[in-house]
Structure formats: C-alpha cells, structure tokens
Amino acid sequence: MTSDENTTNNENSENTKIQVQSNTEKIRNLSLFAITWPILVEVFLQMAMKFSDVFMLSFVSDEAVAAIGIANQIMIFTFVLFNFTAMGCGVVVSQFVGAGKQRDVSRTIANAILINLLFGLVMSAIVVGFRKPLLGIFDLAPELMGYAEIYMIIVGGALFMQAMVLTLSSVLQAQGYTKDVMFTVMGMNILNVFGNYVFIFGALGFPALGVTGVAISTAACRVLAMITLFILMYRRVEFKIAFKDYFLLKGEYVKKIMKIGIPGAGEHLSHNTSQLTITAFIATLGTAAIATRVYAHNYAMLMTMFSMAMSKGMQIYIGQLVGAGLMDLAYKRMFRGLKIAMGVALALGIVMAVFGEFFIGIFTNDPDIIAVGAVLLIIGALLEPGRTTNLVVISSLRAAGDAKFPVVMGILSMWGISVTLAYFLGIHLGYGLIGVWIAILADEWFRAIFMLFRWRSKKWQRMRLVDDEKSSGAAAAKKGKSTA
C-alpha cells in the first residue's frame, strides 16, 4: 500500500470516528420530554376519538354502544396482529438510528410496509367474510347483532389501511418525528368528530345514519391518515427507499423485525385474547353489563393515557440509547420515566375514583350502570400503578431487544390469573363486573413485580439487535485499519 493510500484510509478512519462520536453524543443528549410530549397529545387525541364515538353513539342507544364495543374488541384483536410488524420495525429502526445506520433504516421500513400490507389485506377479507361467526362468539341479542355487523363490514373492510397507519406511525416515531404523527392524528380526530356529528344527527343536510355513519367516518379517516403518513415518511427518511425495495423481502431485516415483533405481538395477542374471553363472560351478564364495561373501559384508557405515551416514548428513547451502546444511561433513564408516569397515572386515578358517578353519568342515566361503573373506577385507581409499570418497563425491555420474557410472563399471568379469576369471581361467585375488575387488578400487579425484577437484572443489556459497531462507518474504519 502506498503512503498516499495509507494516509487516505487513516483520514477516513478518523472521519468515521468523529461521526460515530457525534452520533453517540447526539443520542446521549436526547430529551425524553421532546420525544414524549407529541406522543402524549397523539394518545390523548386517539382516546378523544374513541370517547367521542361512544359519547355520540350514546344518543342513539345503550344497545348501539354495546354493539360497537363488542365489534371493536374484534378490531383491536386484529390491530395486535398488525402491531407485530409495526412494533418490531419501530424497535429495529430506533436501534439503527442510534447506531447511525440510515441505509438499514430505509430497508427495514420497506420490508415492514410490504409485510403489513399483505397481512392487512388478508385480515380485512377474514373479518368481513367471517363476521357472523366472529360475532357469534358473544351470543349477542338480535338488535345488537345488526349494529355490530354493519360496523364490521365497513370498518373491517378498511383494516388494511389501519395496518399501514400503524406501520408508518411507528417508523416515523422511531426516527424521532413524533410531531408528524401527532398532527396527523389531530387531523383524523377533527374529521372523525365532524363525520360522527353529521351522520349520527343528520346535520348540514347529511342523512342520519347512526352506527353506519360512525363506521363510514372511521374508515374515511383511516384512508386519509394512511396517505398523509406515507407522504411524510418519504419526506423524512434520510436514505430514500427505492421502489424495488418494496418487493424484496430481505432475510436480514425480516429476522430482526420478527425477533421483536413476534414475541411482542404474542404478549399483546395474549392480552387481547384474554380480554375477548373476559368480554364473552361479561356478555352473559346482559346488555347493561356490556355497556357499563364500555363506559368504564373508556375512563380506564383515559387514566392510562399518559402511561401509554410514556411507554411509546421510552421505546424510542431506550432503543436509540441501546443502539448507541449507552446501556447504563438507558438503565437509569427508564426509572426516571417510570416515576413520572406513575405520578401522573395515580393523580388521574384518584380524580376518577372520587368523581366516578359524575363521569359515568355523562354517558347514561341508568342508576345501576352508574353505581357499578363508579365502583369500577375506584378499583381502576388501585389497578393503575401496576398497569403503568407494565406499560413502561415492558416497552423498555422490548426496545433493548428483550422481547421473550414479557410474553412468557404475560401468557402465564393473563390466563392463569386474569381470565381464571374473572370467571371465578365474576361468574361463579356472582360478583359480576366488580369481580372481573379485581381479577384484572391481580394480573397487572403480579406482572409488574416480575417486570421490575427483570429490568434490574440487566439481562436485556446483552440482547442488542444492531452489530457491535456503532455504525456501518465504524465497520469500514475497522476494515481500513486492518488493511493498512
């Protein structure tokens, strides 16, 4: 090798070192607040969209609310299946961003989009084609079945668009563009409320379509969100995605996505399957019990809102720290985020518990529903610290590459404690919804304790997804040194 070539390699090596150090310093100085606050607004808007659906449908009837609540249980089940790709892609992208590997970021995104598009089309066909057998699981009354079937035809047919929304949102957030997703969801929310208003109440010359109108509004919003997010993704990605990349599944990237996505989806799948089973138990208690469950669940989601935002933010934050090799910093920052989330969740839970009758009364005048719903909100306040711990710690474990432990514990606890106790207390002993909520409380706290022990063990620090080199450039520098 000539002296000029040797000098060039040394210069390239030094430049690479500087780039790696610069990227690591950038990741070290990441602000959890800057990542999380747009996600908080996004989660709030998503909750508000669900809240507005339930609130406006309550003007139709409690039966309409109950029917859509059941149909949405099935829809949520499909979202979990879509999330296995979106979640895995988000974690892999965040670690690649932390390691400074932009080419790998783009190829991971292309593979994730192709997988979820195909999967979404299959699930849309299944939900629409098998809607009657799926709804038949819940043994719905005839008046509820009609509402639920219409909703599943319209919203179920658009499920593949939701698959794309989840994937595109995940990749944008993993790169730190949380504001883009926030503004998109804000637009969806405004359009959804407008659509619900005109179709439910027949305003501005639109026909009064009730449940059908809510379904049309939901599907239309997802179409617009998908288009918007796709445009934003192309504007934001640093290494442009070639059209051919959407048709080439590369084993290297698919394997990394599935390593996180499949166990992560397994945990969510276990949760949602167990919730479907518990909802089937509740359905045997009658329409009033189903409606109460829907109202209480909406407030439970409101209590969890900040924790959900923090868990999403922590997944991005911890993923980038781990990708940059900053393990000790990741360990400490998780506890800081958990303390903040816990404080907010407890404050919201206490407010809900104290003013429970007022909040449930917003939806209905039925005194029995109000009385039981208020008790559920009190139990929810006791449940919230456990649920918050699970949300934040599990997201952090998954972001670090430790995806298997949460799913194993989740399956054992959700089915061994939540479902079993829900039937025993709620149905066998006759405590109804109160017994069911106590069972869920026991499950959340049991898992929370084990998740904290797992994080403190630091076993996740050995499960990093990206190569040992901080970046592709680092590998090149190493090779250059060796050659020299």
Automatic annotation (TrEMBL):
Annotated Pfam families: MatE (PF01554)
Keywords annotated in UniProt: Cell membrane, Membrane, Transmembrane, Transmembrane helix, Transport
Localization, UniProt: Cell membrane
UniProt xrefs under CDD domains: MATE_like_8
Transmembrane residue ranges: 30-49, 69-97, 109-130, 150-169, 181-204, 210-234, 276-294, 314-331, 343-363, 369-386, 407-425, 431-453
Domain of life: Bacteria
Membrane topology type: Multi-pass membrane protein
Stated family: Belongs to the multi antimicrobial extrusion (MATE) (TC 2.A.66.1) family.
Name of the protein: MATE family efflux transporter
